[in-house]
Design goal:
Layout (H helix, E strand, L loop, with lengths): L8 E5 L7 H11 L3 E6 L2 H13 L4 E4 L5 H14 L5 E4 L13 H4 L2 H22 L7 E7 L11 H21 L4 E8 L13 H11 L8 H12 L10 E4 L17
Parallel strand pairs: 1-2, 1-4, 2-3, 4-5, 5-6, 6-7
Helix pairs in contact: 1-8, 3-5, 5-6
Bound molecules: nicotinamide-adenine-dinucleotide.
């Protein structure tokens, strides 16, 4: 049967293991017939990514560390040579020194890690868009992953929240720039999920339990939930959507107070 993504080719950046959000997205896309290329950061993660990628029929499994711009250039050179064009990119990359993801933002944050967090977690999406759109002469869809700590203060999220705000703003600028070319640019703002990156945030368990108790759907989200929403944003079903920050968080972002009856008075 013909899938929603049959005939489309795309790049998945940010699989570290089978718990990664990028892997949930990749599985949803592959199930609908997409042809996928994967990147991995460093040889140790490469050993984990290769079998996952192969299990969804991928033949392109390429190294890329976004801190090293020459590796980003090499990645897109290979994609151009192998495929010639590209229909979509998933950017599910974030990093900050975990020593700065605890305590007060004002005390924890250094210039060095602020810059590094910004480059890896925010500016890399722009650098990827700069290269990817050139392989999208007939249009395409770019997707990144963000978190609600960008617009509201979440304890310990600190410099990552500042970087996610920059990332979300870049989604809007890139969407405006690339719209004429038919390239759409969106973000999914996911609720907390237990992943390698998520484990770097202090008291992640408390945040997880709090959201499960107070989100409208009374649960946290899964990588399959994110995969379903990503499928929509990367397919032609969302042809009229760009510049959007789409929350996949069991509704947590609409809540202003704990659920009634949950606090003892
Ligand atoms: P993850 O640890 O599985 O994925 C993070 C990925 O970033 C890894 O694959 C890692 O290799 C990659 N990465 C880090 N630095 C890199 C670099 N210099 N070059 C290339 N790749 C690099 O964790 P995840 O939770 O799936 O994270 C994916 C994205 O989702 C991140 O942007 C994260 O901020 C975002 N997000 C996560 C949550 C959550 O609760 N887990 C919630 C909202 C948004």
């Amino acid at each position: 049967a013909k899938g929603l993504m049959t005939g489309k080719r795309g790049l998945i950046m940010g699989v570290a293991n089978s718990h990664s959000i990028a892997w949930g997205i990749a599985q949803a896309l592959a199930a609908e017939g997409a042809q996928l290329a994967f990147t991995y950061q460093g040889e140790a993660l490469g050993k984990r990514v290769a079998p996952l990628a192969e299990s969804v029929g991928s033949k392109l499994i390429l190294p890329c560390d976004v801190e090293d711009i020459s590796s980003v250039d090499a990645l897109f050179a290979t994609l151009e040579k192998e495929w010639g064009s590209l229909d979509f990119v998933v950017h599910a990359i974030g990093f900050s020194d975990k020593n700065e993801l605890k305590g007060r933002y004002i005390d924890a944050t250094t210039r060095e890690n602020f810059s590094r967090t910004m480059v890896i977690s925010a500016f890399s999406f722009t650098e990827i868009a700069q290269r990817a759109h050139k392989l999208m002469p007939l249009g395409g869809s770019l997707l990144t992953l963000t978190y609600g700590g960008s617009t509201r203060v979440m304890p310990n999220y600190n410099v990552m929240g500042v970087a996610k705000a920059a990332l979300e703003s870049s989604v809007r600028y890139l969407a405006a720039d690339l719209g004429e070319q038919g390239v759409r640019v969106n973000a999914i703002s996911a609720g907390p999920i237990r992943t390698l990156a998520g484990a770097g945030i202090a008291e992640a368990r408390f945040m997880f339990n709090f959201q499960r108790a107070h989100a409208p759907l009374r649960r946290t989200v899964t990588i399959e939930d994110v995969g379903g929403s990503a499928l929509y944003l990367l397919s032609d079903l969302s042809a009229g959507v760009t510049g959007e920050i789409h929350y996949v968080d069991a509704g947590y972002n609409i809540i202003s107070m704990p659920q009634p009856g949950s606090l003892k008075s």
